[in-house]
Amino acid sequence: MADNESVATSHEPQDDPLNDLSDEEIQRQLEELLHIPLYEKKVKVERRRRYRHLRLTAEQKCDIAQREIEELREEIEQLKEESEKVIDNNKAVMEEADARFAELKKSSYEFDRDVLKAAHASRTGRVVAEKVIRYFEDRIRARDALIEKLRLKNSTLKVQKKKLNLQLKQKEEMGEVLHEVDFQQLKIENSQYLEKIDERNQDLLRLKLMSGNTLQVLNSYKKKLHTLTMESDRLRSEISSRDELLSKIDIETETVEEERTKAEELNRKLRQQLEDFKVPEVVEYVQEKADLDELQKTVKSWERKVEIAEMAFKTNHKTWQQMRSTNEQTHQWGLMA
């Protein structure tokens, strides 16, 4: 009997832990897990108030929670789409405002450059009205040309829109309308292409960085090349000056070599003369010495004779000059008489 009771108790269904919780606690836990907004809380409170008298099973509670989660996900997706649309619109407005601001800034700069600075009269210092009017007329003509260009572009886009609508209508009539699966496939392909575009952009950015680094390295090498070129020019000029100095040294070396050869030849001759010289005998030396003394005495006597002759010549020359002057005076007196 005990075994049968134990078996019977083992086959009894176990209590669900969610049954031990109240509806408020379950709702609170769901709110903490799902982060339900305030208005959703009010809806849940209203629903709980309506169905408070009902006792839900665990499966029903799970189904309700699952439906709530799905609804919240749908609402979140819808909010995301609406937010993305708002963000795109704001981005478009900001881009348009930036473009308009850039255009106004450019117009202000051109007006300041072409009118306020260039259109001043040299005498009065005021702005010339004709140049201002001409500037605004040019601006109006440019704006009219832009309007005409945009009008043509708008008409072209309208024609393209009509063509696309006609093609879409033809596809609808032929049963070639795209289904949701096709749109999903297009979204997947679009996301793949966007990933590829991002990869290409990353590659482009990497190549730009590489190009910048390469340009920096190239500039550094250009600076080094310029420095080395200047150093090479300096070395070339120094080498040319050294070559000139070396040629001068070679010429001087040749001259010195010739002088050395001449000196060696002279030295050889002197050595030969020294080797050929013989010392005379003593008697011959005494005789030569006596002859030399006699010659010196003779030279001195002749020098004295020359001095005496010069003195006599001077005396005679002076006497002759006096006699000549006397004869000239006598001749002049005779002519005068």
From TrEMBL:
Stretches assigned to coiled coil: 55-96, 147-312
Biased composition annotated in UniProt, kind: Polar residues: 1-11
UniProt keyword annotation of Transport present: no
Composition bias, Acidic residues: 15-24
Gene Ontology terms describing biological process: cilium assembly
InterPro entries in the record: CC_CF, CCDC113/CCDC96_CC
Keyword Coiled coil: yes
Localization of this protein: Cell projection, Cilium
Keywords: Cell projection, Cilium biogenesis/degradation, Coiled coil
Pfam family, one: CCDC113_CCDC96_CC
GO CC list: axoneme; ciliary basal body
Disordered: region residues: 1-24
All copies of domain CCDC113/CCDC96 coiled-coil, residue ranges: 141-314
UniProt family annotation: Belongs to the CFAP263 family.
Name of the protein: Cilia- and flagella-associated protein 263
Organism: Stichopus japonicus
